[in-house]
Specification:
- The structure is a single chain.
- The chain is α/β, with parallel strands linked by helices.
- It has a domain at 31-155 and 201-250: Undecaprenyl pyrophosphate synthetase, CATH 3.40.1180.10.
- It contains nine helices and six strands; from the N terminus they run αβααβαβαβαααββα.
- It has a six-stranded parallel sheet with strand order 3-4-2-1-5-6, sandwiched between helices.
- Helix 5 links the parallel strand 3 and strand 4 (147-154).
- Helix 2 (42-48) packs across helix 3 and helix 3 (53-73) packs parallel to helix 4 (93-112).
- The longest helix is centred in the first third of the chain and has 23 residues, at 3-25.
Length: 258
């Protein structure tokens, strides 16, 4: 038997034990209320497994519902999943078309379960008309234990710009002058016009694939968030990796800048 096969066998035998051990030691009173996750590494996973890029995106899409179940079991209340950035529109037309179809399908599937309250956050005007219309008409699932934000056409800078524009339009409709609007503008006001308005800021932000940057994800909201970077590509992200992230979060002393 090859050495790699032996290693895989050992891991497969040890992981269930390790997972139970992590679960026993976790303090679920320290569970983050809101988790944001950058699901990165689909293309590199496809390359590593010598399959088409489309297959990598599909594998990543299939992982999302599993991750949401883990969050639900851990009593997380809000999850924001970043699926498509504004920068991703620079990719090839062929890949982008495939990716948009996969994202459209996964949003439909998540919403159709009626298990979670799913909504799309982002700049819908950058999306094709058919897709923007689909996301505007997502049904509200009442009584859901988990609110799920799917960030599509999302960029942190774009969100802040959109928030300020929305605020200025709101003030104009009230009949306020530019000077009056400027005098009233502060961080609390801007928060009311973000894509995630009305929701608490994320406690924990996770990024897969080994990259240690946020790329503008929840740029405004992440001021006091804790970060966790995982080496696994998103399609390979396991329950054990999620539990490690929760353990890391629970061990931190959050001072909120004090």
């Amino acid at each position: 038997m090859a050495i790699n096969s032996i290693k895989k066998l050992i891991k497969s035998l040890l992981y269930p034990w390790y997972e139970k051990r992590l679960l026993r030691k976790l303090d679920f009173t320290q569970t983050p209320h809101h988790i944001g996750i950058i699901v990165d590494g689909n293309r590199r996973w496809a390359k590593q497994n010598t399959v088409a890029t489309k297959s990598g995106h599909e594998a990543g899409a299939n992982k999302i519902s599993e991750f949401l179940i883990w969050c639900e079991e851990a009593e997380v209340k809000i999850v924001t999943v970043w699926l498509l950035s504004t920068d991703n529109f620079k990719r090839s037309h062929e890949e982008l078309e495939e990716l948009l179809k996969i994202i459209s399908n996964v949003v439909d599937e998540l919403s159709a379960t009626k298990r979670w309250n799913v909504r799309v956050v982002g700049a819908l005007d950058v999306l094709p008309d058919w897709m923007a219309e689909q996301f505007k008409n997502l049904p509200i699932t009442s009584g859901s234990k988990l609110d799920v934000n799917i960030a599509i056409g999302y960029g942190g800078r774009r969100e802040i710009v959109d928030a300020i524009k929305s605020y200025l339009h709101f003030e104009k409709e009230k009949g306020a002058s530019l000077e009056q609007a400027a005098a009233e503008l502060n961080d609390e006001v801007i928060s009311k016009f973000l894509y995630t308005a009305g929701q608490p800021d994320p406690d924990l932000l996770i990024r897969t694939s080994g990259e240690q940057r946020l790329g503008g994800f929840l740029l405004w909201q992440s001021t006091h968030s804790e970060f966790y970077f995982c080496e696994a590509y998103w399609p390979d992200f396991r329950h054990v990796d999620f539990l490690r992230a929760l353990r890391s979060y629970a061990q931190r002393h959050r001072r909120f800048g004090k």
